[in-house]
Amino acid sequence: MSNTEKNGLIISTNSPEETILLGSALGKGALGGRGLFVALTGEMGAGKTKFTQGIAKGLKIDEGYVVASPSFTLINEYPGEIALNHIDLYRLGGTDELLELGYEEYFYGDGVTVVEWAERADELLPVNRINISISILSENIREFRISFLGETNEKLSVASVGFIKEHLMTFIESKKGE
Fold it and tell me: Cα–Cα distance between 39 and 133 in angstroms, integer?
């Protein structure tokens, strides 16, 4: 089930596997550009890490890497044609920790950066980004509110956003028969 908002999409998934497929659709779309920032929000167990596993799959990150929540390490880096930086701010003591880690390299770099619990560093997030809020509707059903923020620039080009939306819409179309 899905529909569109003024500047985004609302998509539901019915299983962890579908959440991974949705993330993969975004990852495939991200192959069209570099410097993409994805801010994930949602309560514990909403599917943020599953979604990130899908992004890694879509980016063709080597399957030898286990994409896991970096709750205790804060940042996991996965090399690939386009690198994936996976950041989890759940245990962040304050934005000072991010400043010490040199967050700009990740937030404004050439790879794809996915931040779980992004609301914990709201004031540091790039203006140009994709916000994804994940809600738990039932044991297996999740609702994804996806919005594209900021003006497009050389990092997040109109073509990249269009390519990402195209892959997400393909995912939506594949679910219509359900």
Answer: 8
Q: What is the mean pLDDT of the chain?
A: 84
CATH numbers and ranges of domains, the chain: 2-172 (3.40.50.300)
Q: 178 falls in which pLDDT band (50, 70, 90)? A: low
Query: Taking a C-beta distance cutoff of 8 angstroms, is the pair 51, 23 a contact?
Result: yes
User: Counting beta carbons within 10 angstroms of the beta carbon of residue 132, is it exposed (0 to 12), middle (13 to 18) or buried (19 or more)?
Assistant: buried
CA distances from 149 to 63, 139, 153, 157 (A): 31, 30, 11, 12
Tokens of 46: 């909403």
pTM of the entire predicted model: 0.85
